[in-house]
Recover the amino acids of this structure.
Protein backbone atom coordinates (compact mmCIF):
# COMPACT_ATOMS: atom_id res chain seq x y z
CA UNK A 1 0.00 0.00 0.00
CA UNK A 2 1.46 3.35 -1.02
CA UNK A 3 0.86 6.85 0.09
CA UNK A 4 1.34 8.99 -2.93
CA UNK A 5 0.54 12.43 -4.13
CA UNK A 6 -1.45 12.80 -7.30
CA UNK A 7 -0.77 9.37 -8.76
CA UNK A 8 -3.78 7.45 -7.39
CA UNK A 9 -6.12 10.22 -8.50
CA UNK A 10 -4.78 9.96 -12.04
CA UNK A 11 -5.53 6.25 -12.00
CA UNK A 12 -9.08 6.50 -10.73
CA UNK A 13 -10.17 9.71 -12.45
CA UNK A 14 -11.26 8.47 -15.90
CA UNK A 15 -13.46 5.72 -14.48
CA UNK A 16 -14.79 7.92 -11.67
CA UNK A 17 -15.72 10.74 -14.05
CA UNK A 18 -17.74 8.32 -16.17
CA UNK A 19 -19.35 6.64 -13.17
CA UNK A 20 -20.28 9.98 -11.65
CA UNK A 21 -21.61 11.38 -14.93
CA UNK A 22 -23.68 8.34 -15.88
CA UNK A 23 -24.28 6.57 -12.58
CA UNK A 24 -24.64 9.15 -9.83
CA UNK A 25 -25.47 12.47 -11.46
CA UNK A 26 -28.54 11.03 -13.30
CA UNK A 27 -30.23 10.28 -9.96
CA UNK A 28 -30.09 13.96 -9.07
CA UNK A 29 -31.17 15.01 -12.54
CA UNK A 30 -34.08 12.56 -12.43
CA UNK A 31 -35.18 13.90 -9.06
CA UNK A 32 -35.12 17.51 -10.33
CA UNK A 33 -36.68 16.78 -13.73
CA UNK A 34 -39.46 14.75 -12.08
CA UNK A 35 -40.73 17.94 -10.44
CA UNK A 36 -41.02 19.75 -13.77
CA UNK A 37 -43.17 19.52 -16.88
CA UNK A 38 -40.10 19.04 -19.06
CA UNK A 39 -40.85 17.80 -22.57
CA UNK A 40 -39.46 18.21 -26.09
CA UNK A 41 -39.84 22.00 -26.07
CA UNK A 42 -37.97 22.11 -22.78
CA UNK A 43 -35.16 20.17 -24.41
CA UNK A 44 -34.75 22.92 -26.97
CA UNK A 45 -35.03 25.77 -24.51
CA UNK A 46 -34.82 25.53 -20.74
CA UNK A 47 -37.08 28.55 -20.26
CA UNK A 48 -40.00 26.40 -21.43
CA UNK A 49 -39.59 24.18 -18.37
CA UNK A 50 -41.77 24.88 -15.38
CA UNK A 51 -41.65 23.63 -11.82
CA UNK A 52 -44.81 21.72 -10.97
CA UNK A 53 -43.85 20.15 -7.63
CA UNK A 54 -45.44 16.74 -7.07
CA UNK A 55 -47.76 17.25 -10.07
CA UNK A 56 -46.22 14.35 -12.01
CA UNK A 57 -46.58 11.99 -9.08
CA UNK A 58 -50.23 12.95 -8.62
CA UNK A 59 -50.84 12.42 -12.34
CA UNK A 60 -49.14 9.01 -12.17
CA UNK A 61 -51.44 7.89 -9.38
CA UNK A 62 -54.41 8.76 -11.58
CA UNK A 63 -53.01 7.18 -14.76
CA UNK A 64 -54.65 3.81 -15.56
CA UNK A 65 -51.78 2.95 -17.94
CA UNK A 66 -49.32 3.31 -15.07
CA UNK A 67 -51.33 0.98 -12.87
CA UNK A 68 -51.73 -1.56 -15.62
CA UNK A 69 -47.97 -1.51 -16.28
CA UNK A 70 -47.40 -1.99 -12.57
CA UNK A 71 -49.87 -4.89 -12.52
CA UNK A 72 -48.21 -6.54 -15.52
CA UNK A 73 -44.80 -6.16 -13.91
CA UNK A 74 -46.15 -7.73 -10.72
CA UNK A 75 -47.46 -10.70 -12.71
CA UNK A 76 -44.10 -11.08 -14.47
CA UNK A 77 -42.35 -11.18 -11.10
CA UNK A 78 -44.80 -13.67 -9.59
CA UNK A 79 -44.58 -16.04 -12.56
CA UNK A 80 -41.02 -15.43 -13.68
CA UNK A 81 -39.01 -15.51 -10.46
CA UNK A 82 -40.09 -18.99 -9.28
CA UNK A 83 -39.84 -20.30 -12.84
CA UNK A 84 -36.23 -19.16 -13.30
CA UNK A 85 -35.06 -20.06 -9.78
CA UNK A 86 -36.59 -23.55 -9.78
CA UNK A 87 -35.61 -24.36 -13.34
CA UNK A 88 -32.00 -23.26 -13.02
CA UNK A 89 -31.63 -24.95 -9.62
CA UNK A 90 -33.05 -28.20 -11.00
CA UNK A 91 -30.78 -28.16 -14.03
CA UNK A 92 -27.74 -27.33 -11.89
CA UNK A 93 -28.52 -30.21 -9.49
CA UNK A 94 -29.01 -32.64 -12.35
CA UNK A 95 -25.82 -31.51 -14.08
CA UNK A 96 -23.91 -31.93 -10.85
CA UNK A 97 -25.44 -35.33 -10.15
CA UNK A 98 -24.64 -36.55 -13.63
CA UNK A 99 -21.12 -35.20 -13.40
CA UNK A 100 -19.46 -37.11 -16.21
CA UNK A 101 -18.33 -36.19 -19.68
CA UNK A 102 -21.92 -35.99 -20.89
CA UNK A 103 -22.80 -33.30 -18.37
CA UNK A 104 -19.71 -31.26 -19.25
CA UNK A 105 -20.63 -31.42 -22.91
CA UNK A 106 -24.27 -30.51 -22.29
CA UNK A 107 -23.54 -27.64 -19.90
CA UNK A 108 -22.65 -25.27 -22.74
CA UNK A 109 -26.04 -25.78 -24.36
CA UNK A 110 -27.71 -24.48 -21.22
CA UNK A 111 -25.33 -21.50 -20.93
CA UNK A 112 -25.58 -20.35 -24.52
CA UNK A 113 -28.88 -18.39 -24.41
CA UNK A 114 -27.37 -16.11 -21.76
CA UNK A 115 -24.84 -14.62 -24.19
CA UNK A 116 -27.15 -14.10 -27.16
CA UNK A 117 -28.42 -10.65 -28.12
CA UNK A 118 -32.02 -10.12 -27.17
CA UNK A 119 -33.15 -8.44 -30.38
CA UNK A 120 -31.91 -11.30 -32.53
CA UNK A 121 -33.42 -13.83 -30.17
CA UNK A 122 -36.76 -12.07 -30.11
CA UNK A 123 -36.91 -12.27 -33.91
CA UNK A 124 -36.26 -16.01 -33.73
CA UNK A 125 -38.96 -16.56 -31.13
CA UNK A 126 -41.34 -14.29 -33.03
CA UNK A 127 -40.84 -16.59 -36.02
CA UNK A 128 -41.48 -19.68 -33.87
CA UNK A 129 -44.60 -18.04 -32.39
CA UNK A 130 -45.98 -16.89 -35.76
CA UNK A 131 -49.66 -17.73 -36.03
CA UNK A 132 -49.73 -18.74 -39.72
CA UNK A 133 -46.36 -20.36 -40.41
CA UNK A 134 -44.72 -20.68 -36.99
CA UNK A 135 -43.27 -24.01 -35.89
CA UNK A 136 -45.16 -24.10 -32.59
CA UNK A 137 -48.54 -23.87 -34.26
CA UNK A 138 -47.49 -26.51 -36.76
CA UNK A 139 -46.54 -28.90 -33.95
CA UNK A 140 -49.82 -28.16 -32.17
CA UNK A 141 -51.78 -28.69 -35.37
CA UNK A 142 -50.39 -32.24 -35.44
CA UNK A 143 -52.34 -32.94 -32.25
CA UNK A 144 -55.40 -31.10 -33.49
CA UNK A 145 -54.98 -27.68 -31.86
CA UNK A 146 -55.55 -24.90 -34.36
CA UNK A 147 -54.04 -21.40 -34.67
CA UNK A 148 -52.91 -20.40 -31.21
CA UNK A 149 -52.50 -16.61 -30.99
CA UNK A 150 -49.21 -16.65 -29.11
CA UNK A 151 -48.54 -12.94 -29.31
CA UNK A 152 -51.92 -11.40 -30.08
CA UNK A 153 -54.03 -12.92 -27.36
CA UNK A 154 -53.69 -10.47 -24.44
CA UNK A 155 -53.31 -13.17 -21.78
CA UNK A 156 -51.25 -15.64 -23.71
CA UNK A 157 -48.90 -12.88 -24.93
CA UNK A 158 -47.82 -12.21 -21.34
CA UNK A 159 -46.67 -15.80 -20.97
CA UNK A 160 -45.16 -15.96 -24.44
CA UNK A 161 -42.83 -12.99 -23.79
CA UNK A 162 -42.07 -14.27 -20.29
CA UNK A 163 -41.07 -17.66 -21.71
CA UNK A 164 -38.40 -16.03 -23.89
CA UNK A 165 -36.99 -14.23 -20.86
CA UNK A 166 -37.01 -17.46 -18.85
CA UNK A 167 -35.18 -19.22 -21.69
CA UNK A 168 -32.55 -16.47 -21.69
CA UNK A 169 -32.36 -16.02 -17.92
CA UNK A 170 -31.62 -19.53 -16.69
CA UNK A 171 -28.06 -19.94 -18.07
CA UNK A 172 -26.44 -17.33 -15.85
CA UNK A 173 -28.17 -18.71 -12.74
CA UNK A 174 -27.25 -22.30 -13.57
CA UNK A 175 -23.62 -21.17 -13.56
CA UNK A 176 -24.05 -19.48 -10.19
CA UNK A 177 -25.70 -22.59 -8.72
CA UNK A 178 -23.02 -24.87 -10.14
CA UNK A 179 -20.31 -22.70 -8.60
CA UNK A 180 -22.11 -22.85 -5.25
CA UNK A 181 -22.51 -26.63 -5.51
CA UNK A 182 -18.77 -27.00 -6.03
CA UNK A 183 -18.29 -25.18 -2.74
CA UNK A 184 -20.08 -27.89 -0.76
CA UNK A 185 -17.48 -30.21 0.82
CA UNK A 186 -17.73 -33.81 -0.35
CA UNK A 187 -17.55 -35.05 3.25
CA UNK A 188 -20.98 -33.65 4.09
CA UNK A 189 -22.66 -35.76 1.49
CA UNK A 190 -20.54 -38.81 2.23
CA UNK A 191 -21.45 -38.52 5.91
CA UNK A 192 -25.13 -38.37 5.01
CA UNK A 193 -24.78 -41.39 2.75
CA UNK A 194 -23.01 -43.33 5.54
CA UNK A 195 -25.91 -42.49 7.83
CA UNK A 196 -28.14 -44.20 5.31
CA UNK A 197 -29.69 -41.15 3.67
CA UNK A 198 -30.74 -41.74 0.08
CA UNK A 199 -29.86 -39.37 -2.73
CA UNK A 200 -33.15 -37.53 -2.62
CA UNK A 201 -32.97 -37.16 1.15
CA UNK A 202 -29.36 -35.91 0.99
CA UNK A 203 -30.29 -33.32 -1.63
CA UNK A 204 -33.25 -32.09 0.35
CA UNK A 205 -31.75 -32.06 3.84
CA UNK A 206 -28.07 -31.35 3.18
CA UNK A 207 -27.51 -29.79 -0.23
CA UNK A 208 -30.47 -27.42 -0.48
CA UNK A 209 -29.93 -25.84 2.97
CA UNK A 210 -26.25 -25.37 2.14
CA UNK A 211 -27.26 -23.66 -1.08
CA UNK A 212 -29.35 -21.24 0.97
CA UNK A 213 -27.28 -18.19 0.17
CA UNK A 214 -27.04 -18.92 -3.55
CA UNK A 215 -30.80 -19.46 -3.77
CA UNK A 216 -31.37 -16.24 -1.90
CA UNK A 217 -28.95 -14.33 -4.11
CA UNK A 218 -30.47 -15.65 -7.33
CA UNK A 219 -33.97 -14.87 -6.07
CA UNK A 220 -33.06 -11.26 -5.28
CA UNK A 221 -31.24 -10.58 -8.56
CA UNK A 222 -33.92 -12.35 -10.59
CA UNK A 223 -36.63 -10.31 -8.89
CA UNK A 224 -34.78 -7.09 -9.73
CA UNK A 225 -34.35 -8.25 -13.32
CA UNK A 226 -38.07 -8.95 -13.72
CA UNK A 227 -38.97 -5.61 -12.15
CA UNK A 228 -36.86 -4.03 -14.93
CA UNK A 229 -38.24 -6.36 -17.65
CA UNK A 230 -37.95 -4.53 -20.98
CA UNK A 231 -36.22 -6.12 -23.97
CA UNK A 232 -38.38 -9.14 -24.79
CA UNK A 233 -41.80 -7.45 -24.84
CA UNK A 234 -40.30 -4.37 -26.48
CA UNK A 235 -39.14 -6.30 -29.52
CA UNK A 236 -41.77 -9.07 -29.63
CA UNK A 237 -44.97 -7.13 -28.96
CA UNK A 238 -43.99 -3.49 -28.37
CA UNK A 239 -45.97 -3.76 -25.14
CA UNK A 240 -49.15 -4.89 -26.91
CA UNK A 241 -51.68 -6.23 -27.63
CA UNK A 242 -53.61 -3.41 -25.98
CA UNK A 243 -50.91 -2.87 -23.38
CA UNK A 244 -51.09 -6.47 -22.16
CA UNK A 245 -47.29 -6.86 -22.09
CA UNK A 246 -46.42 -3.28 -21.20
CA UNK A 247 -44.06 -3.58 -18.25
CA UNK A 248 -43.07 -0.62 -16.10
CA UNK A 249 -39.90 -0.13 -18.12
CA UNK A 250 -41.77 -0.10 -21.42
CA UNK A 251 -44.30 2.35 -20.00
CA UNK A 252 -41.43 4.63 -18.93
CA UNK A 253 -39.66 4.30 -22.28
CA UNK A 254 -42.81 5.19 -24.19
CA UNK A 255 -43.66 8.16 -22.00
CA UNK A 256 -40.08 9.39 -22.15
CA UNK A 257 -38.94 8.77 -25.69
CA UNK A 258 -42.11 8.38 -27.78
CA UNK A 259 -44.22 11.07 -26.09
CA UNK A 260 -41.19 13.07 -24.90
CA UNK A 261 -42.72 13.55 -21.44
CA UNK A 262 -39.34 13.65 -19.70
CA UNK A 263 -40.64 15.03 -16.41
CA UNK A 264 -43.49 12.54 -16.18
CA UNK A 265 -41.30 9.56 -17.11
CA UNK A 266 -38.62 10.61 -14.60
CA UNK A 267 -41.21 10.64 -11.83
CA UNK A 268 -42.30 7.16 -12.90
CA UNK A 269 -38.72 5.91 -12.96
CA UNK A 270 -38.16 7.09 -9.39
CA UNK A 271 -41.32 5.29 -8.31
CA UNK A 272 -39.99 2.11 -9.94
CA UNK A 273 -36.63 2.64 -8.23
CA UNK A 274 -38.39 3.00 -4.87
CA UNK A 275 -40.36 -0.21 -5.48
CA UNK A 276 -37.18 -2.12 -6.38
CA UNK A 277 -35.39 -0.75 -3.31
CA UNK A 278 -38.27 -1.62 -0.95
CA UNK A 279 -38.68 -5.17 -2.28
CA UNK A 280 -34.93 -5.78 -2.06
CA UNK A 281 -34.76 -4.50 1.52
CA UNK A 282 -37.74 -6.67 2.51
CA UNK A 283 -36.03 -9.73 0.99
CA UNK A 284 -32.82 -8.92 2.86
CA UNK A 285 -34.76 -8.64 6.12
CA UNK A 286 -36.54 -11.94 5.58
CA UNK A 287 -33.20 -13.56 4.86
CA UNK A 288 -31.67 -12.28 8.07
CA UNK A 289 -34.41 -13.95 10.06
CA UNK A 290 -33.47 -17.25 8.43
CA UNK A 291 -30.96 -19.60 9.97
CA UNK A 292 -27.47 -19.34 8.59
CA UNK A 293 -25.46 -22.44 7.93
CA UNK B 1 -12.30 -60.54 5.39
CA UNK B 2 -12.93 -63.93 3.90
CA UNK B 3 -14.52 -64.61 0.57
CA UNK B 4 -17.60 -66.04 2.22
CA UNK B 5 -18.48 -62.51 3.29
CA UNK B 6 -18.23 -61.15 -0.19
CA UNK B 7 -20.58 -63.64 -1.72
CA UNK B 8 -23.90 -62.58 -0.17
CA UNK B 9 -22.93 -58.94 -0.72
CA UNK B 10 -22.46 -59.48 -4.38
CA UNK B 11 -25.86 -61.03 -4.52
CA UNK B 12 -27.51 -58.00 -2.93
CA UNK B 13 -25.71 -55.45 -5.04
CA UNK B 14 -26.85 -55.99 -8.62
CA UNK B 15 -30.43 -54.70 -8.23
CA UNK B 16 -29.11 -51.67 -6.29
CA UNK B 17 -26.49 -50.96 -8.96
CA UNK B 18 -29.05 -51.44 -11.68
CA UNK B 19 -31.38 -49.00 -9.96
CA UNK B 20 -28.63 -46.40 -9.73
CA UNK B 21 -27.72 -46.97 -13.36
CA UNK B 22 -31.34 -46.49 -14.34
CA UNK B 23 -31.50 -43.22 -12.40
CA UNK B 24 -28.26 -41.99 -13.95
CA UNK B 25 -29.49 -42.92 -17.39
CA UNK B 26 -32.81 -41.14 -17.02
CA UNK B 27 -31.09 -38.06 -15.60
CA UNK B 28 -28.76 -38.08 -18.59
CA UNK B 29 -31.75 -38.37 -20.88
CA UNK B 30 -33.59 -35.48 -19.22
CA UNK B 31 -30.46 -33.34 -19.47
CA UNK B 32 -30.01 -34.24 -23.12
CA UNK B 33 -33.60 -33.37 -24.02
CA UNK B 34 -33.35 -30.13 -22.04
CA UNK B 35 -30.07 -29.18 -23.70
CA UNK B 36 -31.36 -29.86 -27.19
CA UNK B 37 -34.58 -27.90 -26.66
CA UNK B 38 -32.60 -25.02 -25.14
CA UNK B 39 -30.35 -24.85 -28.18
CA UNK B 40 -33.16 -25.51 -30.63
CA UNK B 41 -34.21 -21.88 -31.32
CA UNK B 42 -30.63 -21.12 -32.36
CA UNK B 43 -30.49 -24.09 -34.72
CA UNK B 44 -33.85 -23.02 -36.13
CA UNK B 45 -32.44 -19.54 -36.70
CA UNK B 46 -29.41 -20.76 -38.65
CA UNK B 47 -31.49 -23.22 -40.68
CA UNK B 48 -34.05 -20.54 -41.48
CA UNK B 49 -31.39 -18.08 -42.62
CA UNK B 50 -30.53 -20.34 -45.57
CA UNK B 51 -34.11 -20.86 -46.73
CA UNK B 52 -35.50 -18.99 -49.73
CA UNK B 53 -38.14 -16.46 -48.70
CA UNK B 54 -41.03 -18.63 -49.87
CA UNK B 55 -39.84 -21.76 -48.15
CA UNK B 56 -39.50 -19.92 -44.84
CA UNK B 57 -43.24 -19.26 -44.71
CA UNK B 58 -44.20 -22.73 -45.92
CA UNK B 59 -46.71 -24.61 -43.85
CA UNK B 60 -45.85 -27.22 -42.73
CA UNK B 61 -42.38 -25.78 -42.09
CA UNK B 62 -39.31 -27.64 -43.36
CA UNK B 63 -36.72 -28.60 -40.77
CA UNK B 64 -33.69 -28.04 -43.00
CA UNK B 65 -33.61 -25.77 -46.06
CA UNK B 66 -34.62 -27.73 -49.15
CA UNK B 67 -32.86 -25.34 -51.53
CA UNK B 68 -30.21 -23.67 -49.37
CA UNK B 69 -29.36 -20.14 -50.51
CA UNK B 70 -27.13 -17.27 -49.46
CA UNK B 71 -29.54 -14.74 -50.96
CA UNK B 72 -30.72 -13.50 -47.57
CA UNK B 73 -27.21 -12.66 -46.44
CA UNK B 74 -26.50 -10.94 -49.74
CA UNK B 75 -29.62 -8.81 -49.39
CA UNK B 76 -28.61 -7.76 -45.88
CA UNK B 77 -25.33 -6.36 -47.10
CA UNK B 78 -26.44 -5.01 -50.49
CA UNK B 79 -30.07 -3.86 -50.38
CA UNK B 80 -29.98 -3.17 -46.66
CA UNK B 81 -27.28 -1.35 -44.73
CA UNK B 82 -26.08 -4.17 -42.50
CA UNK B 83 -22.44 -3.65 -43.46
CA UNK B 84 -22.59 -0.22 -41.85
CA UNK B 85 -24.48 -1.54 -38.79
CA UNK B 86 -21.83 -4.21 -38.38
CA UNK B 87 -19.08 -1.58 -38.62
CA UNK B 88 -20.78 0.60 -36.01
CA UNK B 89 -21.15 -2.36 -33.69
CA UNK B 90 -17.45 -3.13 -34.05
CA UNK B 91 -16.61 0.51 -33.24
CA UNK B 92 -18.77 0.33 -30.09
CA UNK B 93 -16.93 -2.83 -29.03
CA UNK B 94 -13.55 -1.18 -29.68
CA UNK B 95 -14.47 1.90 -27.65
CA UNK B 96 -15.32 -0.61 -24.93
CA UNK B 97 -11.62 -1.47 -24.85
CA UNK B 98 -10.93 1.97 -23.36
CA UNK B 99 -13.57 1.28 -20.73
CA UNK B 100 -11.67 -1.88 -19.84
CA UNK B 101 -8.45 0.10 -19.43
CA UNK B 102 -10.19 2.75 -17.30
CA UNK B 103 -11.69 0.09 -15.04
CA UNK B 104 -8.32 -1.64 -14.64
CA UNK B 105 -6.67 1.68 -13.79
CA UNK B 106 -9.31 2.52 -11.22
CA UNK B 107 -9.13 -0.98 -9.76
CA UNK B 108 -5.36 -0.54 -9.35
CA UNK B 109 -5.80 2.89 -7.78
CA UNK B 110 -8.24 1.53 -5.22
CA UNK B 111 -6.25 -1.65 -4.56
CA UNK B 112 -2.73 -0.33 -4.17
CA UNK B 113 -2.83 3.30 -2.99
CA UNK B 114 -3.97 5.15 0.08
CA UNK B 115 -5.47 8.55 -0.67
CA UNK B 116 -7.88 11.10 0.70
CA UNK B 117 -11.50 10.39 -0.20
CA UNK B 118 -10.79 6.79 -1.18
CA UNK B 119 -13.51 5.32 1.03
CA UNK B 120 -16.17 7.72 -0.21
CA UNK B 121 -15.22 7.24 -3.86
CA UNK B 122 -15.29 3.47 -3.56
CA UNK B 123 -18.67 3.66 -1.89
CA UNK B 124 -19.92 5.59 -4.93
CA UNK B 125 -18.55 2.87 -7.20
CA UNK B 126 -20.59 0.26 -5.33
CA UNK B 127 -23.65 2.50 -5.10
CA UNK B 128 -23.89 2.68 -8.90
CA UNK B 129 -24.48 -1.08 -8.89
CA UNK B 130 -27.85 -0.61 -7.27
CA UNK B 131 -29.27 1.97 -9.64
CA UNK B 132 -31.53 0.55 -12.35
CA UNK B 133 -31.05 1.71 -15.92
CA UNK B 134 -34.66 2.90 -16.10
CA UNK B 135 -33.84 5.65 -13.63
CA UNK B 136 -30.72 6.80 -15.46
CA UNK B 137 -32.22 6.42 -18.94
CA UNK B 138 -33.86 9.83 -19.27
CA UNK B 139 -31.37 11.92 -17.28
CA UNK B 140 -28.48 10.33 -19.14
CA UNK B 141 -30.14 11.23 -22.41
CA UNK B 142 -30.53 14.81 -21.17
CA UNK B 143 -26.89 14.90 -20.00
CA UNK B 144 -25.59 13.54 -23.31
CA UNK B 145 -27.84 16.00 -25.12
CA UNK B 146 -26.29 18.79 -23.06
CA UNK B 147 -22.81 17.54 -24.03
CA UNK B 148 -23.90 17.50 -27.71
CA UNK B 149 -23.14 13.77 -27.79
CA UNK B 150 -26.56 12.49 -28.81
CA UNK B 151 -26.40 10.99 -32.27
CA UNK B 152 -22.73 10.03 -31.99
CA UNK B 153 -21.19 6.59 -31.53
CA UNK B 154 -19.22 7.93 -28.59
CA UNK B 155 -22.49 8.92 -26.95
CA UNK B 156 -23.83 5.41 -27.53
CA UNK B 157 -20.79 3.85 -25.87
CA UNK B 158 -20.23 6.27 -22.98
CA UNK B 159 -23.08 5.38 -20.57
CA UNK B 160 -22.00 1.74 -20.22
CA UNK B 161 -18.27 2.20 -20.81
CA UNK B 162 -17.36 1.75 -17.15
CA UNK B 163 -19.27 -0.44 -14.72
CA UNK B 164 -18.94 -0.25 -10.97
CA UNK B 165 -18.88 -4.01 -10.84
CA UNK B 166 -15.92 -4.13 -13.22
CA UNK B 167 -13.95 -1.68 -11.07
CA UNK B 168 -14.82 -3.78 -8.04
CA UNK B 169 -13.58 -7.01 -9.65
CA UNK B 170 -10.30 -5.41 -10.76
CA UNK B 171 -9.74 -4.05 -7.27
CA UNK B 172 -10.38 -7.45 -5.68
CA UNK B 173 -7.95 -9.14 -8.02
CA UNK B 174 -5.21 -6.51 -7.88
CA UNK B 175 -5.26 -6.49 -4.08
CA UNK B 176 -3.68 -9.93 -4.28
CA UNK B 177 -0.61 -8.63 -6.15
CA UNK B 178 2.20 -8.49 -3.55
CA UNK B 179 3.37 -4.95 -2.68
CA UNK B 180 6.99 -6.17 -2.85
CA UNK B 181 6.67 -6.74 -6.59
CA UNK B 182 5.59 -3.13 -7.12
CA UNK B 183 8.27 -1.83 -4.76
CA UNK B 184 10.92 -3.79 -6.62
CA UNK B 185 9.80 -2.25 -9.90
CA UNK B 186 9.99 1.23 -8.41
CA UNK B 187 13.42 0.56 -6.92
CA UNK B 188 14.53 -0.47 -10.40
CA UNK B 189 13.46 2.98 -11.53
CA UNK B 190 10.18 2.18 -13.28
CA UNK B 191 7.72 5.07 -13.21
CA UNK B 192 4.10 4.67 -12.09
CA UNK B 193 2.77 4.34 -15.62
CA UNK B 194 5.39 1.79 -16.56
CA UNK B 195 4.77 -0.19 -13.39
CA UNK B 196 1.10 -0.33 -14.26
CA UNK B 197 1.50 -1.38 -17.87
CA UNK B 198 4.49 -3.72 -17.51
CA UNK B 199 3.92 -5.27 -14.09
CA UNK B 200 0.32 -4.87 -12.94
CA UNK B 201 -1.55 -5.47 -16.19
CA UNK B 202 0.42 -8.60 -17.17
CA UNK B 203 -0.10 -10.01 -13.67
CA UNK B 204 -3.84 -9.35 -13.99
CA UNK B 205 -4.29 -11.38 -17.15
CA UNK B 206 -6.87 -13.79 -15.72
CA UNK B 207 -9.29 -11.05 -14.67
CA UNK B 208 -8.53 -9.01 -17.79
CA UNK B 209 -9.50 -11.95 -19.99
CA UNK B 210 -12.77 -12.48 -18.13
CA UNK B 211 -13.67 -8.80 -18.30
CA UNK B 212 -12.64 -8.42 -21.92
CA UNK B 213 -14.89 -11.27 -23.00
CA UNK B 214 -17.81 -9.94 -20.94
CA UNK B 215 -17.22 -6.41 -22.29
CA UNK B 216 -17.26 -7.75 -25.82
CA UNK B 217 -20.55 -9.55 -25.25
CA UNK B 218 -22.30 -6.60 -23.60
CA UNK B 219 -20.97 -4.12 -26.17
CA UNK B 220 -21.93 -6.32 -29.09
CA UNK B 221 -25.43 -7.00 -27.73
CA UNK B 222 -26.17 -3.54 -26.33
CA UNK B 223 -29.57 -2.35 -27.43
CA UNK B 224 -31.10 0.29 -25.18
CA UNK B 225 -28.46 3.01 -25.56
CA UNK B 226 -28.03 2.68 -29.33
CA UNK B 227 -31.81 2.81 -29.56
CA UNK B 228 -32.07 5.99 -27.50
CA UNK B 229 -28.94 7.85 -28.58
CA UNK B 230 -28.57 7.00 -32.28
CA UNK B 231 -31.48 8.53 -34.14
CA UNK B 232 -29.56 8.84 -37.42
CA UNK B 233 -29.72 5.64 -39.44
CA UNK B 234 -26.00 5.99 -40.24
CA UNK B 235 -25.24 5.30 -36.58
CA UNK B 236 -27.41 2.23 -36.09
CA UNK B 237 -25.83 -0.83 -34.55
CA UNK B 238 -26.78 -4.39 -35.48
CA UNK B 239 -29.29 -4.63 -32.66
CA UNK B 240 -31.14 -1.45 -33.69
CA UNK B 241 -31.05 -2.36 -37.38
CA UNK B 242 -32.45 -5.75 -36.44
CA UNK B 243 -35.32 -4.34 -34.41
CA UNK B 244 -36.32 -2.19 -37.39
CA UNK B 245 -36.33 -5.27 -39.58
CA UNK B 246 -38.88 -6.68 -37.20
CA UNK B 247 -41.20 -3.72 -37.67
CA UNK B 248 -40.77 -3.19 -41.39
CA UNK B 249 -40.53 -6.65 -42.90
CA UNK B 250 -42.77 -8.76 -40.77
CA UNK B 251 -43.36 -11.35 -43.50
CA UNK B 252 -39.79 -12.14 -44.52
CA UNK B 253 -38.63 -14.46 -41.74
CA UNK B 254 -35.73 -15.86 -43.80
CA UNK B 255 -34.18 -12.39 -44.04
CA UNK B 256 -34.81 -11.86 -40.33
CA UNK B 257 -33.12 -15.15 -39.46
CA UNK B 258 -30.11 -14.21 -41.59
CA UNK B 259 -29.85 -10.87 -39.79
CA UNK B 260 -30.26 -12.55 -36.42
CA UNK B 261 -27.51 -15.00 -37.34
CA UNK B 262 -25.15 -12.14 -38.25
CA UNK B 263 -25.66 -10.85 -34.75
CA UNK B 264 -25.69 -14.10 -32.77
CA UNK B 265 -23.11 -16.31 -34.49
CA UNK B 266 -20.03 -14.14 -33.68
CA UNK B 267 -21.00 -14.14 -30.01
CA UNK B 268 -21.51 -17.89 -30.13
CA UNK B 269 -18.01 -18.31 -31.57
CA UNK B 270 -16.53 -16.10 -28.86
CA UNK B 271 -18.46 -18.12 -26.31
CA UNK B 272 -17.24 -21.46 -27.64
CA UNK B 273 -13.60 -20.31 -27.73
CA UNK B 274 -13.57 -18.43 -24.41
CA UNK B 275 -16.20 -20.40 -22.54
CA UNK B 276 -13.96 -20.76 -19.50
CA UNK B 277 -13.74 -16.98 -19.08
CA UNK B 278 -17.45 -16.41 -19.66
CA UNK B 279 -18.36 -19.02 -17.06
CA UNK B 280 -15.85 -17.56 -14.59
CA UNK B 281 -17.21 -14.09 -15.17
CA UNK B 282 -20.79 -15.18 -14.62
CA UNK B 283 -19.84 -17.13 -11.52
CA UNK B 284 -18.06 -14.02 -10.20
CA UNK B 285 -21.19 -11.97 -10.77
CA UNK B 286 -22.63 -14.28 -8.14
CA UNK B 287 -20.36 -12.53 -5.65
CA UNK B 288 -21.86 -9.12 -6.28
Amino acid sequence: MRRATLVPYLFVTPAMVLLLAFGVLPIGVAAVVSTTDMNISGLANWSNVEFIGVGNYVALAADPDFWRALGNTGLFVVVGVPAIVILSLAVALLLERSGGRLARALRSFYFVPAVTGIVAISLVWGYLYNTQFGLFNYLLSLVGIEQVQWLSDPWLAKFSVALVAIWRGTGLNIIIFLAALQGIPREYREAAALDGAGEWRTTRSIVLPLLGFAIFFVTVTTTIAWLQFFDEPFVLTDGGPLGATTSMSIFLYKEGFRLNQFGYASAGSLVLFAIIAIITVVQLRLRRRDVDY
Amino acid sequence: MSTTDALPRRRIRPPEVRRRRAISLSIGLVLLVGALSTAFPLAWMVAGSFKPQREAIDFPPTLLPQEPTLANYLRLFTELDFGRYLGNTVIIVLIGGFGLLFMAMAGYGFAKFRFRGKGALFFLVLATLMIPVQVTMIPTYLILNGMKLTNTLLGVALPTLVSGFGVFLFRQFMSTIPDEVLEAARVDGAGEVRTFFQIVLPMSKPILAVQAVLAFITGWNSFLWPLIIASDQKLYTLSVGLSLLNQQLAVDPALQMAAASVMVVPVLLVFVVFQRYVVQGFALSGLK
